[in-house]
Design brief:
This protein is an all-alpha fold. The protein is built from 26 helices and no strands. It folds into two domains: 475 residues, Sodium/glucose cotransporter; 56 residues, no CATH class. The relative contact order is 0.17.
Length: 573
């Protein structure tokens, strides 16, 4: 059986597993649909959170970025992992004490304003659709290569699968599906990494095998005219490394589809433990990603760089990926040879290889068996679909629960709210599919934009809402609008060719800051505006300030404070 046959078999089996879980875990009430009935264990939630977190960007694109950028690509590892520390310390346990369904729920009640709730809903939808575009792009990349179907058809297939189990099972179905998807994706990521580590070094531990391969990669990179792979600040300036890392960290702590996972566990203690478990499960992939990047670049430089272009085009795995359009061999200097700079790009020289193919192509590059290649394809799909489903739940809950259920029809029955939530997911899948077919960049780049938007909109108001009881509704509204607007506009101007179709970027950068880093500046603007406006407007009502005290210090509050908190938070004390 060939690669296509094995891929079809393994993908079909995993999809059948996901659909079976959705049927088994179908829900009939809003608590099950939005927060899985708050019955998920800490270990299970940690695994589901890891799957939700390790999107197509982590599985498919992150190693590609590290392969292309070398040392500078480590900002994605530091940013996306460091953000979980912020999440565990500053947000997760306190939001679980609050006990609602969504981030806009917290914003609306904490800042005693439906206007604040609406602004938070808009921000959640904006962030989620930006993020989901990267996931749908990842689905299309996998299908276009391994099932040899057009990218658009691959996106449609992914849309149908996600819509089925998200609409049927809601957060409960998504949670247990994500647990299965984590098992698939981590197995698919580790198996080829271990096999290649043994092949190259004889050491079965990829993380240790780096010690042997990295000096070789540095030497061959310099020999071929590239900067040393482990040399710092060759691709990004120090300023951009700092600002992008911060944007990814605080964006992690502000992502609504990650935060909502901590509403699904049984208690505050379970929320803390599930964060720890999630870090462990994430670390298995994140410590392996640099090794995958190093292996891939080492193979490519050794086998392709300096070869005749026609000869490179005849390499089987190159031929396969050229058919998808994700490899386009560029002989920029016309010498008939494939230079290293032409493979991976350089100043004024376009890259011949799309970063998104690195993980998916590596088993083929290393001549591993067809079943391992198919397994990696199934893992990539699991990563993309798990995150896409979590994002769709956020979109659904933001509109059906926060807008329809709280503002438009607060008297609506539980059944009606559930029906609206499912309808919203269906339309959300259609919009997500469109963005997947027309993304504003490659997978990890699009996801980085989503993190910047989350950092600029949610992180400041969540932190101030928990730790500063003087924060007011006017401050929160103005802060979210200013931070989100600034970041979205700057990303649009810098990436105008991809987003608006302009021939040249309207802005090349913002005082030296790239599009991925402007979210940090947006976050600082949000903090400054929220604090300033809060200080010049009347303080929050006493019951709201009492609620904040209750969330942070539950054992020290008075009985009167407990009653106030229970009234606002719905009895979750």
């Amino acid at each position: 059986m060939g690669i296509q046959g094995w891929t079809f078999l393994i993908v079909t089996l995993t999809f059948a597993l996901y659909i079976g879980i959705a049927i088994w875990s179908r829900v009939r009430d809003t608590a099950g649909f939005y927060v899985a009935g708050r019955g998920v264990s800490a270990v299970g939630n940690g695994m589901a959170t890891a799957a939700d977190w390790m999107s197509a960007a982590s599985f498919i694109s992150m190693a590609g970025l590290i392969a292309f950028m070398g040392y500078d690509g480590a900002i994605y590892l530091m940013g996306w992992t460091g953000g979980y520390v912020l999440l565990a310390l500053l947000l997760a346990p306190f939001l679980r004490k609050f006990g609602k369904y969504t981030v806009p729920d917290f914003v609306g009640d904490r800042f005693y304003s439906n206007a604040a709730r609406v602004v938070a809903v808009v921000a959640a939808i904006f962030v989620s659709f930006t993020y989901v575009a990267g996931q749908m792009r990842g689905v299309g990349v996998v299908f276009s290569r391994f099932l040899e179907v057009p990218v658009e058809l691959g996106v449609v297939i992914g849309m149908v699968i996600v819509a089925f189990y998200a609409v049927l099972g809601g957060m409960k179905g998504v949670t247990y599906t994500q647990i299965a998807q984590y098992c698939v994706l981590i197995f698919a990521y580790l198996v080829p990494a271990i096999a290649i580590a043994i092949l190259l070094t004889g050491n079965p531990v990829p993380q240790i095998a780096i010690e042997d391969i990295l000096p070789r990669l540095d030497a061959i990179s310099v020999e071929l005219g590239l900067s040393g792979y482990s040399s710092p600040f060759t691709d990004l300036s120090r300023l951009n490394v700092l600002l992008i890392a911060v944007a990814l960290m605080v964006g992690t702590a502000g992502l609504p589809h990650v935060i909502v996972r901590f509403y699904t566990v049984r208690s505050v203690r379970a929320a803390r433990w599930s964060t720890g478990w999630a870090l462990l499960f994430i670390a298995l992939l994140y410590t392996t990603a640099p090794t995958v990047a190093i292996f891939a670049k080492y193979f490519m430089l050794n086998t392709l760089a300096g070869q005749e272009v026609e000869q490179v085009a005849q390499v089987p795995w190159v031929q396969n990926w050229m058919q998808t359009g994700l490899i386009d061999l560029q002989d920029s200097n016309g010498d008939g040879l494939m230079q290293a700079q032409e493979l991976f790009g350089a100043a004024g020289i376009p890259a011949s290889i799309d970063p998104d193919i690195i993980v998916l192509a590596l088993p083929e590059i290393a001549s591993l068996s067809a079943i391992i290649i198919a397994l990696v394809a199934a893992g990539g799909l699991a990563a993309a679909l798990s995150t896409a489903s979590g994002l769709l739940i956020v979109i659904s809950s933001s509109i059906a629960h926060d807008i329809y259920g709280h503002i438009l029809r607060p008297d609506a029955s539980d059944r009606k709210r559930l029906q609206v939530g499912r309808i919203v997911i269906f339309f959300g899948v259609v919009v997500a599919g469109y963005f997947g077919m027309n993304p504003p960049g490659f997978v990890a780049e699009v996801v980085a934009f989503a993190f910047g938007l989350a950092a600029a909109s949610f992180f400041p108001v969540l932190v101030l809402g928990i730790f500063w009881k003087r924060a007011t509704k006017e401050g929160a509204i103005c802060g979210m609008i200013s931070g989100l607007s600034f970041t979205a506009i700057l990303i649009g101007l810098i990436r105008s060719p991809q987003i608006f179709g302009t021939s040249e970027p309207i802005l090349t950068d913002f005082f030296g800051v790239s599009a991925q880093g402007v979210g940090t500046i947006g976050m600082l603007i949000n903090f400054a505006v929220t604090i300033t406006v809060s200080l010049i407007t009347p303080p929050p009502p006493d019951d709201v300030q009492e609620m904040v005290e209750g969330i942070r210090y539950p054992r020290l509050r008075s009985q009167e404070g407990a009653r106030a908190t229970a009234a606002v938070v719905g009895g979750e004390v």
